[in-house]
Amino acid sequence: MTMTLDSRQLPPDAAADAPAPSARPSTWRLVRANGAVRLGATALTVLAVVAVAAPWLGTVDPAAIDPASINLAPGTHAPFTDLSGASVDHFFLMGADGFGRDTWSRVAYGARISLFVGFAVAVLAVLGGGLIGLLAGYFRRLDGVLMRLMDGFMAIPNILLAIALVSMFRASLWTIVLAITLPEIPRVARLLRSIVLSVREEPYVEAAIALNTPTWKVLWRHVLPNAVAPLIVHATYVCGSAMLVEAILSFLGIGLSPEIPTWGNIMSEGRVNFNEHPQHVLFPGAFLAFTVLAVNILGDGLRDTLDPKLRRRGD
């Protein structure tokens, strides 16, 4: 007969030397320990601070036009006349555009539009596509109808569908958000549907169904928790893509009004004098590229941390 000893039956010295049971770190600790997640989150936090604190970061009214400041070079100190007619000594960190507007002020305020569009599209796409994917994956009768609808939307290129929606309605901020969100919903729906189809065959889900557990409880307690991590990762890619599409629409002249400072509008107006003054395009383009890169790095880090297969391979 075999006997087992616990730490209470061992001598004091042996109990002290006994190895402690291995505790697997929590998901939140793994996320915080990932370098890519920290890097991407830090970069996005800095951009968010710039967007929110733009009025206190050496900026002026981004819509103020001063004919005396047209096409000033970056790093120039010069008087600037604002909309009220007051003249102040201003430091043009990124120069001035072809209308005499401070480029740094327009880039800083433009971060608000890009970040808002990116996060709004990501949230709406995940909510809308997640609901459709959940219903299609769990209820077989709805699967065929909903997926054929999603296939029809996916057959239309993203940018063309966005252009059509913006052309039909007034180009307001929420119109832009809606136009970018609709093409992303089918992709989120197909992702969640594939997850639900695999989870619904698990023994614990079948056991819950056999015990007559209400459908909404099965979906809420057993299905959705398995889909949260993939949805979070996919939302980061949707966010980065939405920022690019918004910049494309503004660059093509069918986005927000040119008076509203967005990175796409700034680049669209600066391309006219690109040969003589390339900074009008390079500065907002660099901010856009940096933001999308930060979002993608964050998404890669979350994927590596939250995906059990990739995490097991790293261990």
UniProtKB/TrEMBL annotation:
Keywords: Cell membrane, Membrane, Transmembrane, Transmembrane helix, Transport. It is found in: Cell membrane. The keyword Aminoacyl-tRNA synthetase does not apply. Residues 115-299 form the ABC transmembrane type-1 domain. Residues 1-22 are annotated as: Disordered. The chain crosses the membrane at residues 36-57, 113-139, 159-182, 281-302. GO terms for biological process: transmembrane transport. It comes from Hydrogenophaga intermedia. SUPFAM superfamilies: MetI-like. It is a multi-pass membrane protein. It holds the Pfam family BPD_transp_1. Residues 11-22 have a biased composition (Low complexity). Coiled coil: none annotated. GO terms for cellular component: plasma membrane. This is Binding-protein dependent transport system inner membrane protein. CDD domains: TM_PBP2. Belongs to the binding-protein-dependent transport system permease family.
